[in-house]
Amino acid sequence: MSADQLGSLAIVGIGPGRSDWCLPDVAERIASATDLVGYARYLDLVSIETAARRHRSGNRVEANRSALALDLAADGGRVVVVSSGDPGVFAMASAVVEQLDRWPDRWCGVRFEVLPGITAAQALASRVGAPLGHDFCVISLSDVLKPWELIERRLEAAAGADFVIALYNPASRHRPWQFGRAVELLAGHRDSATPVIVGRDVGRPGEHISVLTLGDLLDAEIDMRTVIIVGSSTTRILPDRPLGASVYTPRSYGLGADPNPTVPSNHATA
Amino acid sequence: MSADQLGSLAIVGIGPGRSDWCLPDVAERIASATDLVGYARYLDLVSIETAARRHRSGNRVEANRSALALDLAADGGRVVVVSSGDPGVFAMASAVVEQLDRWPDRWCGVRFEVLPGITAAQALASRVGAPLGHDFCVISLSDVLKPWELIERRLEAAAGADFVIALYNPASRHRPWQFGRAVELLAGHRDSATPVIVGRDVGRPGEHISVLTLGDLLDAEIDMRTVIIVGSSTTRILPDRPLGASVYTPRSYGLGADPNPTVPSNHATA
Questions:
Q1: Is A158 close to B157, i.e. CB distance below 8 A?
Q2: How many angstroms separate the CA atoms of A65 and A63, rounded?
Q3: CATH number of the domain where residue A84 is located
Q4: I want to staple B148 with a disulfide (CB 3.0 to 4.6 A). Which of B2, B143, B170, B248 is the partner?
Q5: What are phi and psi for residue A228, nearest 5 degrees?
Q6: Is B256 part of a structural domain of the chain?
Q7: What kind and span of H or E run contains B199?
Q8: Domain with B177 in it: what CATH number?
Q9: B215 to chain A nearest CA, in Å?
């Protein structure tokens, strides 16, 4: 096959699921694709009109799914690999590039592109205010692809240095005790009154968001569709404001006198 | 003024600047706004057609800008505060919620909402492959609003626990030595061959992206429009692939035998 017959592969993220939170560039790629490749549940979230064939696969077959997408592109397709959220954050972009790394002579000349999307932690943060307004970490609690010891080391480091911490994949049927252990580690560094936000199916039908404290986190319902943001020592809850403005992490930290104090605007108010 | 005359305030992020990387929901708010409030340089990036008045302000007047936006909304406006990137990540969402926190009895009844956007680290990551494919941290190197000692502590913690690290606000005219010190700290934990990605004006005219190593980072041109991603010990460079597939952090980490090996697809290839 000559090089000009080779196709293209775009790895895209549709965001949390709402069509108005999906980038126009991503929507355009999906609309004009010949083939969509993805985990079946994510392909079902695609509401954009497209004549593309849908290649649905199960979870945990990322290597095979990546190779299929690359093969379809090498055959001349305009192939789109669909992740939810951002494909670059615990999603398909890394899995596909890993195939290119392992097979250096294969799929040469396929045009390859990753397009970003809104990841779950951003979507959850936006729903409650600005908990990620200061330095933060993003950690997957799944020990399927990394040793649990590494996860503990990262939780300790992040909690010890007072980062806000976003937790992905907090629990599943196959990982029953890990979440409790993670909360125990965090509680060793943070006050039990530390604000915590728990979001399930953020940006999707059935969205459920709670603002609670670290002391109550073990009582929350947690599963693979949940993302959690644990505040730092400076994160604050505003009890008398609506959900959209209920939690934030201030931009300034421990400087004593505020270097940029409130200046009421000059605009006349009622 | 009665409650039903109160307006609304949306804090939005337009992403890196490209109109096709701005959420449809954000574009719609800007198009239908009565007032846009923001740092002048970000308002200039707004290419969406709108009849809104533009309230341009300088950098570092976030408190005053926030109060102005809230006042305009309290007067009945459909006000949109415009950030670049994601308004929840080192941007205006935290500044506005802080005003609501400081003045608990003011601006009650204004409808308040934060909409997410693509932040610079995501945009940069997507340009080169998948460097954020595993656990990562996001740290601002600006010590204008936090003590430099905290930044050092966080860099040490993140590097010590082998996180991928995204660095925002790496340098400015007023902070001449901090970047060098940060690189020195990271070099104490990471090999000099560690992959590093440097992006300037990502997603904007004049975009410039380089893939280099930690050992060469001090020679790179760095300023406030630059964002940097420093790989972990597992991040890899693919020298023979184009820029879009040149760096990734594998999904699995230090488990010995790959739990999910490459399975060539069943699809026939040329």
A1: yes
A2: 5
A3: 3.40.1010.10
A4: B143
A5: -130, 140
A6: no
A7: strand B195-200
A8: 3.30.950.10
A9: 23
Cα A234 to the center of its chain, rounded Å = 23
Domain boundary among A69, A91, A118: A118
One domain for residues B134 and B243:
yes
Range of the domain at B142: 121-248
Asked whether residue A190 falls in the same domain as residue A164, the answer is yes
Each residue's pLDDT, cut to its tens digit, for chain A (270 residues) gives 455 578 999 999 999 988 999 999 999 999 999 999 999 999 998 989 999 999 999 887 899 999 999 999 999 999 999 999 999 999 999 999 999 999 999 999 899 999 999 999 999 999 999 999 999 999 999 999 999 999 999 999 999 999 999 999 999 999 999 999 999 999 999 999 999 999 999 999 999 999 999 999 999 999 999 999 999 999 999 988 999 999 999 999 976 655 444 555 545 433
pTM of the model: 0.94
Beta strands in chain A (DSSP E): 8-13, 35-39, 53-57, 78-83, 111-114, 129-130, 136-140, 164-168, 195-200, 208-213, 226-230, 236-237, 247-248
Domain boundary among B85, B118, B151: B118
* A244 plus A129 within the same structural domain: yes
3-state DSSP assignment of residue A129: strand
Residue B170: its chain A contacts at CB < 8 A?
none
Do residues A166 and A137 touch, judged by C-beta distance below 8 A? yes
Whether B265 sits inside 8 A of A93 (CB atoms) is: no
Name residues whose C-beta falls within 8 Å of residue B95's C-beta, 6 or more positions apart in sequence: A251, B62, B63, B65, B66
Nearest residue, CB atoms, A260 vs list B20, B60, B93: B60
User: Are both A143 and A230 inside the same structural domain?
Assistant: yes
Is B173 in contact with B144 (CB distance < 8 Å)?
no
Closest Cβ opposite residue B259 in set A96, A114, A144: A144
Summarize pLDDT for B168-189 with one digit per residue, the tens: 999 999 999 999 999 999 999 9
Q: What is the DSSP letter of A216?
A: G
**B148 in the same domain as B85:** no
3-state secondary structure of A192: coil
Classify residue B262: in a domain, yes or no. no
Identify each DSSP E strand in A14-52 by its residue range: 35-39
